[in-house]
């Protein structure tokens, strides 16, 4: 909370400084317009205003085919400023509506339009985003160093990806934005652009996941868990397309209730709120999904430090004759491989802790089957501690940790665990939830397991921190709603 308060304070200070500066310089404004070749000097121009006493013209210049009118605010109100050719009073060279605010600041075109040094607004926003992003990245790196296996790491990384896309889009518009409305339009456009980029990605992912899920169903059976990838891919595609379909319908439908063509009515702005809300949700969800994939792969590829005293082997289904399946053999072989790597690197031996109880369709406990295999590979029985009561991963970790504490008399020990690569991140989170400090190592498996595992982790991430995700989505949507309301006010004040 201290960090959040710190960044909010920095943001408030930056905004206050920006407002004070713009207020100080905004009472004077320069209007730029093109002039024809027939106009050779400023004496050929006439400046008129429909309301006197609101602004005063302090300077008029012509340079390289462009005219520059400098005005200074006098009193609050609106004024239509026009520039004519003296020799041809019918030829209107330039016209612009100026808004003089109570503070004396002049904006052109609309109430929150271009302002003197308006580029500072976009620059300030970009700077604040960069500071917030830096803080989020440093916090994320600290959390990962402390413990990779946390769902909040997924949320933080998803938010980093999300904000980074906005920062890149905003940085490109710094040189062209001249006021608050330019900033608002560029931000709203970046939401649509991001979704446009993500749509083909979501579609390709849907096709890829569907093919993977078909393989999974053929090999592992048909159930809703094995179809999660297809369901999620379809939802993302439909959600991303929804705003465009709705807009096309409202643009062409002859409706009396909703009119999205009149900028003076709030109907169009309500539609824009619905549109950006859907796009914010979809974009955020896809960023969280990408973060889930990145951290799952990182967890699977990570090699624990060679200081371990124990390594858990998480059980799974065994063959009918009591031998290990290829999946479980892979986990066991990976544990043995790590043991040899540590022995070669540091000379330190470790104790194997095979974990897993006996299922209704199994002839012996999974842990007993793993022990038999370890002994067959030359591992001494004195280096094996069997946990044969657990029924799932959560219990594997809990029961094994309890046995390790009993054997080590409460002394601090370093623990690793071995499982299938797609299962490392999830197992690590189960360990974290029980206060078990451990590192995982992953054994290779078939690729179609990976895809569905990513989806399951994604769903688990959303479920475990649903309040935090909702707050993030609501905060992002609220910012967009505020911008749309400002746009409405600017066009109607």
Could you explain how this protein is built, in words?
With 493 residues, the protein is an alpha/beta fold. The protein folds into three domains: 27-104, Immunoglobulin-like (Sandwich), CATH 2.60.40; 120-298 and 463-492, no CATH class; 310-413, Rossmann fold, CATH 3.40.50.620. It is 56% helix and 15% strand. It is built from twelve helices and eleven strands. The protein has helices at 2-25, 119-146, 151-172, 180-220, 228-252, 267-301, 326-346, 366-376, 393-407, 424-433, 447-464, 466-492; strands at 28-34, 45-49, 55-63, 66-73, 77-85, 88-100, 106-108, 310-314, 351-355, 415-420, 438-443. A four-stranded antiparallel beta sheet has the order 2-5-6-7, with no helix packed on it. A four-stranded parallel beta sheet has the order 9-8-10-11. A three-stranded antiparallel beta sheet has the order 1-4-3, with no helix packed on it. The model has no long low-confidence stretch (mean pLDDT 85).
Which key terms come to mind for this protein?
alpha/beta; four-stranded antiparallel β-sheet; 56% helix; four-stranded parallel β-sheet; Immunoglobulin-like; Rossmann fold; elongated; 493 residues
Largest beta-sheet details: 4 strands, antiparallel
| Helix-and-strand structural type | alpha/beta
Taken together, the total number of domains comes to 3
Overall mean confidence score, pLDDT = 85
Give the helix level as a range of percent.
55-70%
Radius of gyration: 32 Å
Strand order of the largest sheet: 2-5-6-7
Order of helices and strands: HEEEEEEEHHHHHEHEHHEHEHH
Q: Note the total helix count.
A: 12
In whole angstroms, how far apart are the ends? 39 Å
Per the principal axes of the C-alpha atoms, what is the gross shape? elongated
Any low-confidence stretches, pLDDT <50, length ≥5?
A: none
Beta-strand residue fraction:
15-25%
Count of DSSP strands: 11
């Amino acid at each position: 909370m201290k960090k959040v308060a710190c960044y909010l304070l920095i943001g408030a200070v930056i905004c206050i400084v920006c407002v004070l500066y713009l207020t100080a310089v905004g009472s004077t404004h320069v209007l730029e317009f093109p002039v024809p070749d027939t106009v050779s000097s400023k004496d050929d121009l006439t400046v008129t205003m429909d309301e006197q006493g609101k602004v005063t013209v302090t300077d008029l210049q012509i340079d390289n085919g462009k005219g520059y009118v400098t005005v200074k605010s006098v009193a609050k109100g609106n004024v239509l400023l026009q520039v004519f050719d003296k020799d041809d009073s019918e030829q209107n060279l330039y016209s612009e509506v100026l808004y003089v605010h109570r503070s004396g600041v002049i904006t052109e075109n609309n109430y929150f339009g271009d302002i003197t040094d308006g580029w500072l607004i976009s620059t300030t926003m970009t700077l604040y985003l960069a500071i917030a992003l830096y803080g989020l990245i440093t916090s994320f790196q600290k959390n990962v160093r402390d413990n990779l296996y946390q769902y909040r790491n997924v949320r933080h990384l998803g938010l980093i990806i999300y904000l980074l896309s906005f920062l890149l889009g905003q940085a490109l518009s710094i040189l062209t934005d001249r006021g608050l409305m330019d900033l608002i339009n560029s931000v709203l456009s970046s939401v649509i652009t991001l979704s446009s980029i993500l749509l083909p990605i979501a579609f390709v992912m849907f096709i890829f996941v569907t093919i993977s899920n078909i393989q999974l169903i053929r090999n592992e059976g048909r159930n809703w868990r094995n179809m999660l990838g297809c369901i999620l891919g379809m939802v993302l595609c439909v959600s991303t397309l929804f705003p465009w379909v709705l807009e096309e319908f409202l643009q062409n439908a002859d409706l009396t209730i909703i009119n999205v063509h009149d900028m003076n009515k709030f109907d169009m702005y309500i539609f824009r709120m619905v549109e950006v809300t859907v796009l914010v949700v979809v974009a955020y969800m896809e960023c969280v999904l990408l973060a889930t994939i990145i951290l799952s792969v990182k967890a699977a590829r990570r090699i624990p430090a060679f200081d371990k005293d124990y390594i858990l082997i998480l059980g799974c289904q065994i063959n009918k004759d009591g031998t290990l399946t290829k999946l479980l053999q892979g986990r066991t072989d990976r544990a043995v491989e790590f043991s040899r790597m540590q022995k070669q690197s540091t000379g330190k031996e470790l104790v194997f802790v095979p974990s897993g109880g006996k299922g209704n369709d199994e002839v012996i406990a999974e842990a007993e089957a793993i022990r038999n295999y370890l002994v067959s590979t030359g591992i001494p029985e004195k280096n094996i501690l069997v946990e044969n009561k657990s029924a799932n991963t959560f219990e594997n970790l809990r029961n094994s940790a309890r046995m390790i504490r009993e054997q080590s008399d409460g002394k601090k020990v370093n623990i690793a665990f071995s499982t299938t690569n797609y299962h490392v991140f999830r197992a690590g989170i189960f360990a974290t939830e029980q206060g078990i400090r451990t590192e995982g190592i992953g054994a290779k498996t078939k690729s179609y397991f990976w895809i569905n595992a990513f989806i399951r982790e994604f769903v688990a991430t959303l479920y475990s921190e649903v309040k935090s995700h909702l707050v993030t989505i609501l905060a992002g949507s609220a910012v967009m709603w505020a911008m749309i309301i400002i746009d409405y006010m600017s066009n109607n004040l």
